[in-house]
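# step 3/5: fold
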Amino acid sequence: MNTNKNMEFWGIKNMRFCPICGSPNIDWVLPQDWSRWKCKECGYIGTLIVEDGKIADEIRKEYLKKHVNKK
């Protein structure tokens, strides 16, 4: 999955990604609390997010390498 190419194709520039697993499946913990994010894939909760698709791709590759090989 090349997130950056998908972003270019769809014209999406303001995507946010989980800093732990690189998933775009991330949302606010509470809509009123815009500073805390939760990843629906790995369960990360925190204030840090990634907005660069290239970095998210690298994070995603490393995360999948570590977690897919363990199963």
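# step 4/5: annotate
The helical segments are 3-10, 53-68.
# step 5/5: archive (pending)
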